[in-house]
Amino acid sequence: MFSHVMVGVNDLEVSKKFYDALLGTLGIGPGVANKNRYFYRSPTGTFGITTPINGQPATHGNGSTLGFTMQSPEQADAFHAAGVANGGTTCEDPPGWREGATGKLYLAYLRDPDGNKLCALHRPAK
Questions:
Q1: What is the pLDDT of residues 107-126, one digit of tens each?
Q2: CA distance linking residue 121 with residue 67, whole number of Å
Q3: pTM for the full model?
Q4: Which of 5, 31, 100, 118 has minimal CB crowding within 10 Å?
Q5: CA-wise closest residue to 80 among 90, 71, 70
């Protein structure tokens, strides 16, 4: 559905360190520079970080969450731990299984250094 997702950041190098570590747990290489942006490419899409083009401070979306697909609960835990170790903060409930209308999910939430909310999501095979 999506070709790419881009989030605004205020300190490009702090955020690059965070996302290099975070996305590295998914096997994605370090961000590739392009002007005031870094891009992370995978076979299924692109994730980018940028300082806002209009020169205003980056702000996070209240109520927004970016979800990343995980292959296992262990990968979700590694993703979460890498984020917290590199300037992110945990949020919501601790990483773990949740039951809901969509079935059983393993979720791990955190915020990046600019407050963007991220979710590691593992959906077990049926």
A1: 999 999 999 999 999 999 88
A2: 7
A3: 0.93
A4: 100
A5: 90
